[in-house]
Amino acid sequence: MRYTHEHIALQDSVRRFIDAEITPNIAEWEKAGIFPAHELFRKMGKLGFLGVNKPVKYGGLGLDHSFEIAFCEAIGGIGAQGVSMGIAVQTDMATPALARFGSEELCQAFLVPAIAGENVVSIGVSESGAGSDVASVRTRARKDGDDYLISGSKMWITNGTQADWVCLLANTSDDAPHRNKSLICVPLKQAGVRAPGVTVQKIDKIGMWSSDTAQIFLDEVRVPQRYRIGEEGKGFAYQMMQFQEERLSAAARRVTALSQVIDQTIEYTRGRIAFGRPILDNQVVHFRMAELKTEVELLRSLVYRAADVHMAGEDMTELASMAKLKVGRLCREVTDSCLYWGGMGFTLDNPVSRAFRGLRLISIGGGADEVMLQIICKHMGILPRQ
Hints:
Mean pLDDT: 96
CATH topology of the largest domain: Butyryl-CoA Dehydrogenase, subunit A, domain 3
Structural class: alpha+beta
Number of helices: 12
Order of helices and strands: HHHHHHHEEEEEEEEEEHEEHHHH
CATH superfamily of the largest domain: Butyryl-CoA Dehydrogenase, subunit A, domain 3
Radius of gyration: 21 Å
Number of domains: 3
């Protein structure tokens, strides 16, 4: 995958938007523990940023997935990881399955306002007892006439306190765990008011401060069955496909974030004098920067290769899992190594310390490192017999 002038133009537009609309507000949003998603997404929607690879008939730009990777790399440069993650939930986590399998009615009702930025969206898979083990989710949607009555709870929901609807994975039958689940578009608000049976509780975190994360409780929430995405019982399969785009997005965004951390550390250590010379002039420091940059560029190549496979209509699961595993490991290694900032790196008001606490999530969210290793081993044919 190689970027054309069109890819670069898209990235330049996104970066100008970030400089004007996001960067000046980062400190305030980090302190508040939330960014104004409706306000920001409406601005992004008008510029086409929330539907880069979505169909034109629903308001998207209709571009191939390489442009979405370019977009992800661009928003990876946002100085607050929580904001870029909130945007990616809207574009690469909660809407791919809807765009691919949703009915025309469902796409008009839910996908169109998501692409326009009129709605804020969440993805509801994880629960307090079911994170990476998706098959064990307990939230249930039972039929009642033409409706579902949904009961259960979802945990770690990004954009959760602001979301207008959630792409929810729920059990819709008593079949086997991989065949009893469906994805359902569940409205969390009605006319701007919390929907009946829905309770949302914000969760405080050690990082990703500008992202509002919540636990969502559902008590007999009534939703029409026509809000189901695709076929009943196919939700697990749809979500596994959706996960691959999420994981590739996560890696693409962090390629930029990690490169930025390295560049910021080089700039700081070049100007920081200790024992009569810049810290950067110590071989152990500039060699380490070179090693880290090499690792990040190898990750970038892996992301591009996975994107090529995906665009060719082939299964990118193994490569996307490798990219997700590698980026999680690098997020820890790079941010820890780049605390060459010394005592300044241990202060809150510092880009490297913000990255240190924000990027730690990547080895957990969207499938823990150990799950990625299991997937890779499965594709290698070396999983032990149960």
